[in-house]
Model the fold of this input.
Amino acid sequence: MKLRQHLLLLCLFCLISPAVWSQKYDSSWESIDKRPIPAWFSDAKFGIFIHWGVYSVPAWAPADAPIGVYAKYAEWYWNKLLVNSGEEHKYFKAFHDSIYGSKFQYQDFASQFKAELFEPEKWADVFTRAGAKYVVLTSKHHEGFCLWPSEQSWNWNSVDIGAHRDLAGDLSKAVKAKGLHMGFYYSLYEWFNPLYKSNLEKYVDDHMIPQMKDLVNRYQPDVLWTDGEWDHPSEKWKSTQFLSWLYNDSPVKNSIVVNDRWGKETRAKHGGYYTTEYDLVHDKKGIDKAVTHSWEECRGIGTSFGYNRIEDLDNYMSSKALIDLLVEKVSSGGNLLLDIGPTADGLIPVIMQERLLDMGDWLRVNGEAIYGTQVWRKSPDKSIPGVFFTLKGNDLFVICTKWPQGPIVIPGIESVQTVSLMGSPIKVKASANGSLTIHPPAINPANMPCQHAWVFKVSNIGI
Ligand code: GLC
Done:
């Protein structure tokens, strides 16, 4: 009898204790890939990427040269300067030699990465007002320079040289204080690290994994955004061993989200969410709404991730284009991680601030149609130009990136309760009977609820 009681109690305990139920992950992709992506990530939809490092000092790339997309990244300055493969090298070298002289070494920029005007609370305020829900900062890019006091990176980090400040830690505190999720980008490889070049295994064991664990233990981030994985398969990086630690034993095991950049074979296949970059997965066309796995598009506002001083207005996307981009990605199931490149003195260029705040203004009116929504999988096969859909429960959001000039007809909807124009009290006429017809009201432009894109909320659709 006693034994039975014990068993009963044990069963009850198992039912109510999530700890007992929590899954253990072994170090195979099969096991790691079973871990669900924490829901906060797919609800968040919009994050801010920040590329900030020693490359923010020269802050230059040939933005308008007739060369490929990846060749215009200012954060690749050191590599493009020294490695003579690809035609972009000549642009970087000509620039460097003429401005700094051929004897000036990239390492010498580090003392100029001072961040003397950096006020993390101000950055966090801009991100909050932009309507972003998470932030991902380059803790270490391919140059190997760390934005935190990494023991493994002596004298090549922002505390030992330049700013003399724990930039990653200070930003993390400010971002979390605003209630946003904080994450770190981390490059697995380092272009010129002698240990990486001479002994990969030792680099992974004594440098890379200790650094990633240090970041996780010290700052408890919600995102670990790895990159620079393409030289080796995930086995060599010991990625699954690290991920099993992250998911089983780390202090963020329940909240952390990772991406798919864990080895040359892993993008859009293994890890956490899939990534596209300027709409590409490596050199292939990105992901569309047929993909049900979580994914995220990242790109700069212009042609680079790191700040590029020579970019002008023509290189930057307009606020309208950025809002359209967010709508397009979210309606096809993705998140948008929009990058900004702060300057070496610690400021977010005003034009970038303006773009972000414009997005925030739009999201304040229309956020319900973005955050926490899903793809409308039953949307009509034939797309309607300028019209996008998102779904939340039984409510359908019809997002128009142009103000519609006539009725919008959406097939496949049997009935509907009400249709409203988000942010406006104006009545919207609509009827449903096999298909839904929305008659956009005539509104004086001065009374428009927002600019750039407009949302009709269709409550309680019957399909
Ligand atoms: C890349 C680049 C890089 C950028 C990034 C963002 O692969 O090497 O400079 O940080 O991805 O997606």
